[in-house]
Amino acid sequence: MSYPNPKFIKGLIATTLALAAVQAAQAENKLFPTDVLNQGQLDASATLSGSKSTDDFVYNPSSQPGTSKNYTSQLSAGMRYGVNASLTVGGTVSGVDERATTIYNNVPVRYDDTASGIHSESIFAKYAFIGGKNAPMTLSGEITATTYSSHNIGGDGYNAATVQLFAGWDCGQGVRSYATLHFTAPDRGNHTKSEGVTVGSWISVSDNATIIPSLSLSHSQETTTTPATSSYTLGLAGLVAVDTNTYLRPAASIGKQTSHDSLNGNFHYDGSKTESASLELYHLF
User: Fold this and answer.
1) CATH of the domain at 137
2) With the CA atoms of 71, 232, 94 and 24 taken in that order, what torsion angle do they form, in degrees rounded to the nearest 10?
3) In total, how many domains does the chain have?
4) What is the value of pTM for the model shown?
């Protein structure tokens, strides 16, 4: 019996690994903020996330301190389709469950609110102004229209439009950095307009794994019911290939909001502290 040449085996292994790396990179590249799909391509994702926000406050008329906590869990799913080499369209559906607790420290008063949360549906279009697999810099923009349906007691539904601009550049040695600008405007005055910027880097640690640190700064404008606030968020995500075109993306973040007074002056809030975590399953067809 003859055995294959060891050089042939090594060559076959090297070729297989190289092809896997190329195919994996193809999927990964479609998740970079500036990327769009190729013509006729389709991808899908499902994300499970949760968050906890804690805000210490003082009820000014009686100088009574307290703490409010808000817990959310969210499940979302989305699909995208490449119309041509520059344009990608898609949609997302999402459901959020909420639970809020308010405790006054020095008196036996506690308020619990278990809500059904808010459901939303979005459609979007993303266009690559400057792109290409080997381009040193990429630039794209996205417009999103979202409808929110509140299932909370006394809640109201509303619509919002979001405009985002993404810029990316290749830093070399497996590092790609990006910056994102966004502006969101709702159609009702009791929901906030917001603008913000996010910067981050994709750092390749192997053919199948990438880590993604990020920093976000945002500002929410005053509404008819809430004052203006600013916040920052530090995030860390990972991207792990589990198959040729399938990835898991775990992520975690911490954030802090600026202190502020309620519009009627009755409450002073120290600014909420938010911790969140998510897990996304992504597949490129």
Assistant:
1) 2.40.128.130
2) -120
3) 1
4) 0.81
